[in-house]
Design a protein that fits this description.
Blueprint lengths: L3 H17 L9 E2 L3 H6 L14 E5 L3 E2 L4 E9 L2 E11 L2 H17 L11 H18 L2
Antiparallel strand pairs: 1-5, 2-4, 3-4, 4-5
Length: about 140
């Protein structure tokens, strides 16, 4: 009886992570941006853009990565990046967690010169490539 309680307690403690584990879906599946990503990518107040400046929306190319396709859409107001939205992204928890950070860093830096998000390195690289291509196409 003395051994039964610790064995039972350790067994339950070992099974809890297994019950809570949620594997990522097929890594080749892409999904449209989540509402969180869109909320982060909403136009920010543009301090440097003229009030009458029109917004230009430019989509970057689809970048194929090991985790799935990545495609970024950039909204420029004047010469400032006012919003960024993911059109295609890998369907993984790491990507979903990284997108708001990548978008916010882009809005802060006003360029594609941003840091890689730890745990989403492949997605971060694809994001930067698509973003830079969109900015090049827009002439920003």
């Amino acid at each position: 009886m003395r051994r039964a309680l610790p064995v039972l307690a350790l067994t339950v403690a070992g099974l809890i992570p297994l019950w809570r584990y949620q594997p990522s879906e097929d890594s080749t599946t892409t999904t449209p941006a989540t509402s969180t990503a869109e909320a982060v990518g909403t136009p920010a107040p543009s301090s440097g853009a003229p009030s009458g400046a029109s917004a230009r929306v430019v989509a970057g190319p689809t970048v194929t990565t090991q985790k799935g396709d990545v495609q970024v859409e950039v909204t420029l107001t004047g010469d400032r990046i006012s919003a960024v939205r993911m059109l295609r992204q890998p369907n993984s928890p790491q990507t979903k967690g990284a997108v708001p950070t990548l978008v916010q860093e882009t809005l802060d830096a006003q360029s594609a010169d941003i840091d890689t998000v730890s745990g989403a390195t492949v997605t971060s690289e694809g994001y930067r490539k698509s973003l830079q291509a969109a900015l090049d196409e827009a002439g920003a």
